[in-house]
């Protein structure tokens, strides 16, 4: 027998409210209709979902499994309806966003003025963090994340891809000399991110233009979990680092840092806009993602 989604929604309401009478009142339909729809759902599924007595209603084992699996469907439908209602009014309300600490300070925060001018009804709450936050548990609408995203419960939309390279302060290079090639990195002081750790130790993937990436061993003197934490150490002449070029452009232009082995480049770092799979993106989330993509493409000031 063909199943009717409305029958499932009626069943969910019965379970949530604990009775056919309460469900009928909430749905504004006759109690007999509620009872009939649940009965037709059981016939379509081929299993009893509810135990009915004169005093109480309870779930069967099959009913408990079905209820648990269908709750997310109902929640998604409610979110979709809410998103459509918001769309009619335009993006508005609080938008909770988490960003990597380094990007939050140097890149994301300066762009907010343009976004706020375009969407004055949106209020932003920004959480800068060195570690990925739980989007569902922290009730976060959108996360900006760099690099690979192994968590399959997330939906990622790539905003940009940044080239990486080696950098050092002139003072360090005057004192320690320039490496002749990546093979010399083990003889230099290096400043690395924790994620550079491999089974063989710490490595930096590097390649010449047109070539393939190859892992080169490094022996870090300083480790950190965010590039911003390494920048001051590099500026102070503590050693070499592998970093996103754009994040250090201003320091290079000012002469505070120098590109080392410029013919060698590291792996590009993707910047992704990430949402939880179970959350239907609201108009304000969609608006921010579109704005960020346009900004990265140079289509907005």
TrEMBL record:
It holds the Pfam family HTH_1. Residues 1-60 form the HTH lysR-type domain. Keywords: DNA-binding, Transcription, Transcription regulation. The keyword Transcription applies. Signal peptide: none annotated. The keyword rRNA processing does not apply. Belongs to the LysR transcriptional regulatory family. This is LysR family transcriptional regulator. It comes from Pseudomonas ekonensis.
């Amino acid at each position: 027998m063909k199943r009717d989604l409305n029958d499932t929604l009626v069943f969910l309401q019965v379970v949530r409210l604990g009775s056919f009478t309460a469900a009928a009142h909430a749905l504004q339909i006759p109690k007999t209709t509620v009872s009939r729809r649940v009965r037709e759902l059981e016939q379509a599924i081929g299993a009893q979902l509810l135990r009915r007595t004169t005093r109480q209603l309870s779930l069967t084992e099959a009913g408990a499994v079905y209820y648990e699996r269908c709750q997310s469907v109902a929640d998604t439908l409610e979110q979709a309806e809410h998103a459509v209602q918001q769309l009619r009014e335009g993006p508005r309300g609080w938008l909770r966003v988490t960003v990597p600490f380094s990007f939050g300070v140097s890149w994301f925060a300066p762009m907010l003025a343009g976004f706020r001018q375009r969407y004055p009804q949106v209020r932003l709450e920004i959480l800068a963090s060195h570690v990925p936050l739980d989007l569902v548990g922290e009730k976060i609408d959108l996360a900006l994340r760099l690099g690979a995203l192994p968590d399959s419960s997330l939906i990622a939309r790539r905003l940009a891809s940044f080239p990486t390279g080696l950098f050092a302060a002139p003072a360090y290079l005057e004192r320690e000399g320039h490496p002749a090639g990546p093979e010399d990195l083990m003889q230099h002081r290096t400043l690395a991110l924790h994620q550079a750790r491999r089974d063989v130790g710490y490595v930096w993937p590097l390649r010449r233009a047109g070539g393939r990436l190859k892992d080169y061993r490094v022996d870090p003197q300083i480790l950190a979990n965010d590039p911003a934490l390494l920048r001051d150490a590099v500026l102070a002449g503590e050693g070499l680092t592998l970093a996103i070029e754009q994040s250090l452009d201003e320091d290079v232009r000012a002469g505070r840092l120098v590109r080392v082995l410029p013919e060698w480049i590291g792996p590009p770092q993707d910047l992704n806009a990430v949402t939880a799979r179970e959350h239907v993106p609201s108009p304000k989330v969609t608006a921010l993602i579109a704005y960020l993509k346009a900004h990265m493409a140079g289509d907005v000031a």
